[in-house]
User: What shape does this take?
Amino acid sequence: MESRPSRGGGTGIPAAVLALLGGIFHLVGVAGGSVMLAGDGDLGRALLTFLLHLIVAAMLIIGGVGLILAKPFGRACTIAGAVLALLLYVSVLVLGAFGVYFLGLGDRSLPIGWTAVLCVPAVVTIVLAGLRPTARWVTSGWS
Assistant: This one.
């Protein structure tokens, strides 16, 4: 029996699931940003929170759906969205260490441990979406 290489669903589908879960997580941030827009005195911070979460959520959700459909744009959007999310989390950590708080954080109650934990699924999503089997998945499609 001839052994054929995997089409990549074993890495593409988990990457898609992680991207969709990350997108849903950031939709919660979008909701929080809109609440801040409605009542926070700091309009700039509220708008930044809303827009950053909206961009990351859109990229991850579009990417996750694209990966499920085995489309090349899905892989690209997933990687871009996860990289943006990771940059966002690292920015929160670094700026928080210098006393600059954004994304809904207004004081020294920065949940550093929680923010650091958020980096793990973002990195796993980048790795899974970047693997060669995932590239085969999006080029071979469902057929």
